[in-house]
């Protein structure tokens, strides 16, 4: 396992370099001139002289490969430049907003797990029963209802009418409840169906029959063996969605006025704040890469058949 982990960590380096290259290329292919965008955000009338001065200051007058190397060096030092709007280091502004996004992401993931694991597991065990019908309702409801509309429904019922939770902002655990439930709903719909289908599939596997013929207790078979193997597709989905949630859930943050990373990125797009956009894209790539690495390691722990090459031995 140690060799596999080292290989996966080393594989992150070329993938991240490719992400930096693509980001650099897309920014330079954009019709937006960073120097002009900076002057526009600073409310300075761009003239040829000022534009030339800013291009030289930003290093835009150098060859592209020199610009790319300088960009990689700065990124390796967590230096993403200065925001055109606030004139503050981008990383400082991003890190101050990431804590709010992390709270929201973890809250929604934990809510989804707390609901989907027992409902999906019991639905698979009692196929056609009441829990199974409940899981189907949750799946159809969560997959069909738009997140922003569900968020507004929660606000109207729990905030306006019952006055149980705050309408917007951040501060206490009560501020986290409604946006976390809003984000968790589509995840519950997905994970419940995945776990249900996986449980039904694993119940027909030979290892369950062999365990029963050996006289093992049914609770031990279901909890230690069936659930452990059935949860594997759900873990894969969690890894992908965790990276998505960590990079900001823009619509939900807008509905609940949540000061997260997603809203900051949207503001940067409208303001043509190139350093912020570049930081967001690279950070998103890094989070997805790390999330997938963590998921692979968890999968190796869940299923010991996975070899050091990441291939299931059958």
Q: Which structural class should the secondary elements be placed in?
A: mainly alpha
Percentage of helical residues? Answer: over 70%
CATH architecture of the domain at 100-271: Orthogonal Bundle
The overall average pLDDT, rounded, is 82
Distance between the termini: 18 Å
Q: What is the makeup of the main sheet?
A: none
Oligomer: single chain
Residue ranges: pLDDT <50 for 5 or more in a row?
308-314
Strand content: under 5%
The fold-level CATH name of the domain at 100-271 is: MetI-like fold
Highest-level CATH class of the domain at 100-271: Mainly Alpha
Shape: flat
The number of helices is 14
Write the layout of secondary structure elements.
Elements: H1 2-29, H2 34-41, H3 48-57, H4 64-76, H5 90-125, H6 130-144, H7 147-161, H8 173-203, H9 206-213, H10 218-230, H11 232-246, H12 250-255, H13 261-270, H14 274-302
Helix pairs in contact: 1-14, 2-3, 5-6, 5-8, 5-11, 6-8, 7-8, 8-10, 8-11, 11-14, 13-14
Structure description:
There is one protein chain. The protein is mainly alpha-helical and 314 residues long. The chain has a domain at 100-271: MetI-like fold (Orthogonal Bundle). 75% of the residues lie in helices and 0% in strands. It contains 14 helices and no strands. The longest helix has 36 residues, at 90-125. The radius of gyration is 24 Å and the shape is flat. It starts with a helix and ends in a 12-residue tail after the last helix.
């Amino acid at each position: 396992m140690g060799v596999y982990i080292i290989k996966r960590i080393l594989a992150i380096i070329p993938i991240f370099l490719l992400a930096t290259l693509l980001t650099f290329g897309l920014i330079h292919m954009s019709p937006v001139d960073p120097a002009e965008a900076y002057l526009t955000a600073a409310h300075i009338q761009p003239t040829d002289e000022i534009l030339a001065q800013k291009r030289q200051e930003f290093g835009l007058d150098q060859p592209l490969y020199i610009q790319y190397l300088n960009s990689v060096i700065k990124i390796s030092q967590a230096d993403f430049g200065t925001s055109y709007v606030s004139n503050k280091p981008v990383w400082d502004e991003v890190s101050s907003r990431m804590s709010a996004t992390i709270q929201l992401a973890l809250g929604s993931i934990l809510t989804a797990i707390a609901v989907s694991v027992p409902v999906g597991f019991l639905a698979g065990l009692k196929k056609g029963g009441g829990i199974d019908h409940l899981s189907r309702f949750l799946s159809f409801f969560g997959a069909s209802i738009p997140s922003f509309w569900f968020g507004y429904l929660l606000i109207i019922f729990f905030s306006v009418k019952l006055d149980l939770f705050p309408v917007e902002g951040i501060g206490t655990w009560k501020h986290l409840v409604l946006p976390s439930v809003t984000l968790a709903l589509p995840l519950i719909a997905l994970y419940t169906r995945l776990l249900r289908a996986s449980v039904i599939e694993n119940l027909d596997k030979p290892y369950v029959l062999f365990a029963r013929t050996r006289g093992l207790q049914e609770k031990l078979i279901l909890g230690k063996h069936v659930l452990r193997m059935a949860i594997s597709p759900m873990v894969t989905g969690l890894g992908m969605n965790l990276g998505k949630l960590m990079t900001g859930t823009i619509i939900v943050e807008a509905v609940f006025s949540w000061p997260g990373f997603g809203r900051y990125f949207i503001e940067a797009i409208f303001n043509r704040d190139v350093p912020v956009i570049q930081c967001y894209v690279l950070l998103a790539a890094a989070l997805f890469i790390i999330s997938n690495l963590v998921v692979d390691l968890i999968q190796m722990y869940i299923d010991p058949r996975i070899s050091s090459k990441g291939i299931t031995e059958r």
